[in-house]
């Protein structure tokens, strides 16, 4: 696989691009954590390889390959792309098919598979066609005439799961009949064609505009094509280190923090917008953003403007909290006090808090000892609220956001609180743990 | 072995004031340990979503969140540090107690009272050296085992198969600790009595079988009692269970002292 193989010119930004006050170069050195940002251009490339090599590349072949003295020269041409990559192997098992649908005017899909996956041709072809069809339908036209899929062998894993203009690599072929990860990787890389390839934002400085959008689209594609649903609540809990999304890629510190925030948390931010605006409005937001900014290198603010224009609402606090500051919604039940009111009933005082995040309404469920439950809605505008309740029976527990509607609440344990710890269990754990620690310490010391 | 156990019991009785002091010392520790554990257990139980409207799923998410926070954040660091510091402090005090006790054991036939304080004054340095060396050697495999266990945990599909994989290593480590403990214990006896420590190590090997017998059997009693106390909390709750828990320190202290006295009898026997 030859990616990042030629000296690349930095992107030149004209006045107004990504909020620039004056034109100039967007200069960055190479960073291991970071991906792409370049200007669109026209590429004509001659590739001279040993005769037995089969070559896959960005764009299309505009001449038959020339064979001479045991060498073969391929000639490729691509326009409106911001990078060019290619791959060569004597072992590729190839297949080709044409495809068109609403939003996909006519594309040659070309597969270059590792022989181990020769029998998976149908799966790759089906995933590629379905993904293109959905992307064309949801966001807009696929503007190229080819899409090449390269599946590297097991020992070239490093080249797997990567996006280049009109050329993507699937996960390396390790297993002759893999599970849904085959489709998941492929539709993810094809979704990149829209966000990385066509919209083309600056991945040095705000990588989420590609990775998070692509991961969001990947989940949508997996659900629409294969009925595989996302595990959003678990992913949300995985965010133990939320950081800003508009941040230079190398400032995340390590690659885990980068990947968690830029891929997963960014995707969750989009899901949170979807859950607040509604699924229909969200598709309109995504389509409008794509249509308005294709080939334009937008920034986070461009996206915020689209969200505000489509929903006709103010999203400043939301973007400030979750995109620019990297906060968690962090709703919590801080305390419960429940006691007899002197008239045969009980009075309870419950303190709810929202220590981070933007104002957002939350459902609160109150459970009583007699099994009755009451649901209320807290508007979540202030950072805390004290609620007083009169009831026939003592309050047993309080749960804020019990149905897990608030996508960006990364600490859920504090959303639930009982009026008191169950006495029997508490003694049992205290005594058992005490005995255990005593036994261990006692085996080594007086 | 029976002889040693019987004579050990006599020695234990002779040191009844030491036993009382030991009990009070452990009771004090037990009190703080109980408060420390309860400060962790109570908040977890009040947050544990067992009555949550979405049922089982809430409990699963609670477990998942706990795992993420334990593995990915510094959540447990302070607690582990506190436990480690507590263990360290007790380990610093231990060889001093050992010095006094083992010296007094060695002079158990003498007239007059126990001679714990003289023992501490005379031999705490030497005994500390052997005790410290033993613990260093016994705990050394942790440097390799803890990172190994951690990475194995991350690779295993569930906790049960991880425990299955770790069990042989844990057993191996326990045997290693025991194998290091016995000769070093006898070296401490020799050091406290003013003998040459090497002799002690040789004696430990010569009397390995009865020594293993008392070293395993008596603490096993203690462990069974411990399990019984934990079990009792299923029936009793509140103050009664807590009182039983604290009172058990007396049993544990008695058995610990008795074990040490028996081991010392085995060390002594050749001279008698």
Largest β sheet strand count, sense and barrel closure of chain B? none
Beta content of chain A = 25-35%
Assigned CATH architecture of the largest domain in chain A: Orthogonal Bundle
Structural class of chain A: alpha+beta
SSE diagram, text form:
The complex is a heterodimer of chains A (446) and B (272).
Chain A: E1 11-13, E2 24-26, E3 41-50, E4 54-57, E5 60-61, E6 66-68, E7 71-81, E8 86-89, E9 93-101, E10 104-113, H1 121-138, E11 146-150, E12 162-164, E13 167-169, H2 181-199, H3 208-226, H4 232-238, H5 255-277, H6 279-293, H7 300-311, H8 316-324, E14 331-340, E15 346-354, E16 362-368, E17 373-378, E18 384-391, E19 395-400, E20 416-418, H9 423-442
Parallel strand pairs in A: 10-11, 11-13
Antiparallel strand pairs in A: 1-2, 3-7, 4-8, 5-7, 6-7, 9-10, 12-13, 14-15, 15-18, 16-17, 16-19, 19-20
Helix pairs in contact in A: 1-2, 2-3, 3-5, 4-5, 5-6, 6-7
Chain B: H1 2-14, H2 16-47, H3 56-72, H4 77-106, H5 116-139, H6 142-155, H7 159-193, H8 197-206, H9 208-232, H10 238-268
Helix pairs in contact in B: 1-10, 2-10, 4-5, 4-7, 5-7, 6-7, 7-8, 9-10
